[in-house]
Amino acid sequence: MSSIATKSEERSGLLRQPQSRPSTAYAITVAFSCAISGFLFGYDIGIIDSVLKMPSFLLFFGTGSLNAETGQITETATQADTDGNIVFSFLIGCVFGSMASSVLQDRFSRRRSILLGALIFIVGGILQAISTNVVYLCIARSISGISIGILSSVTPVYLAEVAPAEERGRLVSIQQLMITIGILAASLVNATLYSVYRNDNQWRVALGIQALPAFFLVIAVYFLPFSPRWLMMQGRDIDALAVLSRLRGAPPDDKAVVEELQLMRADVIAEGVGPGDKGSSWKEVLFGPQSAQVHMSIILQFFQQTTGINFILYFAADLFARIGINRDLAATGLVIGNAALLIVGTLPAIWAVEKLGRRWLLITGALTMAAAHIAVTSSLASESSVGAYFAIAFVFVFTFGFSATWGPIVWVVQSETMPLRVRAKGGALATTSNWVMNAIIGKACPLIVDRIEEYIYLMFAVLCLLGGLYTYICVPETKGVALEDVAELFHSKNKAYFTMNGLSSGVGGRSIREGGGSSSSREGGMTGSEMTSRKDRVDAASKSKTYATEAIEVVSPLQTHRLVET
Question: Across the strands, what pairs with 75?
Fold first, then answer.
């Protein structure tokens, strides 16, 4: 074990972790502005179930019929199929959007991709509000889905690339916080409309209002800088230094800023993603030497969905009503409480992700959620009023456990483990995995509940435990490790050791400290006699530091401010 670096040991040369500064007010503002996209995501998934149950919606689209004698609205035979198509059209749009982002974010930049996603969302929200039949509504929903697919893929990548290593987990987690705020906002809008705005346009307001935060995102994007790593990929070194200088709150000639810039450029050269270089192919992403990170992120997104969170979000009102809770209270008060818990749980995660690490949170979260599911099952099986209230309590325990662990942390791990060469395509595939499983759960779970009823929670408990086991075996700790160094965790000869033991920042095997890693770690970017180890190529790149010196001489504080916003 002597070849394993301890946390106190510092890596030499360009491969050591840059001395990142705490996030500046500007970097935090950038993170919150970009994470408005998470609010859009949360609002849309939080509002649609309520909209489908609104009396005005049921009567307008023919999924409900009014009994003239009793004044009650009953669901028609086509209601389930129609609702399924409306929900499914959004998820299909998300799949297409996330796959499209694999091309958009590398070719047109992360920043412009976020702008495009916001503009598409505005169009989708307006079209949903003015829909005249189910077909038009499904088309409008799919357009909004394309937007969310793009935003959910690009935003974590952008946040990870602008954040300093020591704050990356926290800043990426802000997106999940905004998702939870969006879900709560949807619940509050729904409750307000139910109580004070009961008319034929009720559902139109609920769907159309989501265009407003998208408009704010369009404005916010204007003030967002380009990702410094994307600028380096375009050969815009001076612009990258200007952006990095402002994000870190330090002058361009600051040692930590220059070191981080050098590490970025070395990685661009080593990954073969600079100007004129051919990008990665899908074959390389799926089966190349860097595919381990892609596969891991896909599997983590799969397990995030199979925790049962969207089953809870989609069907919580039905669950509460089924066990005897007043339907109005179930559709408003308890749903709002569950949504508020998502926010409460995410707040400690933002602190814990850089204190306790990713692995610890994922493993403990899996155990907590599994225990909550088992408790819900036993409580419902008792068929008593006391058991019903215990079931509600343990649903809340599950919600807190998810929002404090698997909710934000999976997105953090995905955003920081992908090497630059496969980051766009690999991230798109992982996000697509999330949306595909989301769609499957939305379609399959009602059918499963009809057959096994409350024992569906046992199924989710088993899947939670499998997710925790997978994390323990296969997910390394990436807390505090520079983005350019994370890939080395997957290619070290000592991979199995520090994966199983959860070693964190500052660790590395021979491939980091001694150059003993496999030379295949970057075969995807060079061929034949050009192939050397990543460290050799980084060392070669570091011999010429003229680019950094020239950039420092050119960029004045005034130019830094100007370049950041172009």
Answer: 64
List the domain range (segments joined by +) for residue 398: 18-234+275-480
Give the separation between CA 492 and CA 490, rounded to whole angstroms. 6
In this structure, is residue 2 part of a structural domain? no
- Assigned domain for 180 exists: yes
Instruction: Report which of 305, 539, 555, 557 is spatially closest to residue 437, judged by C-alpha positions.
Output: 305
* pTM of this prediction exceeds 0.90: no
CA distances from 405 to 37, 201, 393, 551 (A): 20, 39, 19, 41
CATH number of the domain at 219, please. Answer: 1.20.1250.20
> Does any domain span residue 241?
no
**Where does residue 228 rank: exposed (0-12), middle (13-18), buried (19+ CB within 10 A)?**
buried
Strand partners, 66: 73
DSSP state of 163: S
Residue 326's pLDDT is 67
Q: Which of 403, 372, 395 is nearest to 304 (CA)?
A: 403
b/e for 354-381, b at 16 or more Cβ within 10 A? beebbbbbbbbbbebbbbbbbbbbbbbe
Number of independent structural domains in the chain: 1
Nearest in space to 41 (alpha carbons), one of 130, 134, 118: 118
Contact (CB, 8 A) for 105 and 153: yes
Give the CA distances from residue 461 to residues 308, 322, 469, 495, in Å, rounded to whole numbers and listed in that order.
9, 21, 12, 29
Query: What pLDDT sits at residue 472?
Result: 95
pLDDT, tens digit, for every residue of 92-121? 999 999 999 999 999 999 999 999 999 999
Structure tokens at 357: 């690490």
* Residues of the chain predicted below pLDDT 70: 1-23, 68-71, 316-331, 491-566
**193 within some domain:** yes
- Contact at 8 Å (CB) between 369 and 311? no
Would you say 124 and 147 are in contact if contact means Cβ atoms under 8 Å apart?
A: yes
N residues, the chain: 566
Q: How far apart are CA 86 and CA 430, in angstroms?
A: 24
Of the candidates 156, 177, 472, which has an alpha carbon nearest to the alpha carbon of residue 351? 177
Q: Which of 180, 139, 216 is nearest to 43 (CA)?
A: 180
